[in-house]
Design a protein that fits this description.
With 418 residues, the protein is of the alpha/beta class. The chain is built from 19 helices and 7 strands. A 5-stranded parallel β-sheet has the order 3-4-2-5-6.
Amino acid sequence: MGQAIHIDDLAAPRLSEAQAGALAWGETVTVDFSEAAILDAARTRTGLADFGPDDFRERLRVLREAWDGDPEITRFHRTVLHGYLVRYASNRLLIQRTLTQHPAILAEPIERPVIVVGLPRSGTTHLVNLLASDPRLHSLPLWESYEPVPLPGEPAPGDATDPRFRRCAEAWAGMQQVTPLIAAMHPMNPEHIHEELELMGPDFASYNFEWLGLTPAWRDHYYAHDQRPHYEYMKNVLRLLQWRRGERKRWVLKCPQHLEQLPVLLKTFPDATIVFTHRDPVAVIQSTVTMQAYTQRMNRRHVALPALLEYWTDRIEHLLRACVRDRALVAAERSVDSPFHVFMGDQWATLDRVYATAGLELDAPARAALERYIADHPRGKEGQVVYDLRRDFGVDPQALRERFRFYVDRFAVKPEVT
């Protein structure tokens, strides 16, 4: 366990020299959030022009207008958000060209994936990275999720020498310069296994955009639309990645969004084994809003503690009510419920259950790979953030937990925060 980290300036940040410098630099930069500017930048970056079906333009518009119209977003963060949109538009061009040139990709089978589903901050990241250490499984490293297809003319060795890997590493280094404590909360190393939701980015879909800023307009648009087309898009990009790797294996995936999209997830991956992680929602909210508040020193002109608490409490409730409603849709013989405190107390007991349910033998090579990962990635390796919902947000944890009694009682979730 690493050293305890106390963040005592959430509401009124004391900026480091690097943070102040980055914000000052942002004030000198102007970015254009028009559709033409974003798509032209993607065309220039890739040398391509075919974006495929035009329905993405509506979703891009919602994001552009939400971000461009928010005066609280710092000009530094505007450059970051603009970069996201250009990258996703570029990826869309590259994916579209690849699928057009190689239509057989769409016949690639994605069979019997193991999918980890649970609240953010509930052990999903550790579990999926642990399972991904098994060489018999395909998984999605962050660098490849950010750029599934190389730029035209670039080498693509698929390792740390890949230009896409290097760009991801540079982005992570930059993030650590301006938000150094983020490594203790949610590491974003290039080799870190990421959420497949990232592959919906080029379709300008998913709840992932909610993590980039307070964007209720995007949330409402997402709620109002059927997500099946975007899950199918994501599956097609997985097919593309499998085809590029030249080897068919089972995938291990994970994403919190699936909690509220279980019918869509099951339609997309009907033969999946699904592992549900369960954790005290108060601990999840506490971790989520603290992390979001910490990054707001770079993202917003004023840290919005009450707005963050309201938004993410509501968001977590939405995820959990859908989970309680739809959990029975997943057959018992193809699913595992994994309480956070049980997983943290005995990782091997949980792994035994997951492997047995997935029909995977936990053989000697797999066990050795898992043991290496556990040894190399102890909990709190980068330090342990000390969260305090009562001190930082003025909330009584036990009173907040009552709001989630419908979930806590259903899954016998152990309270963590008092």
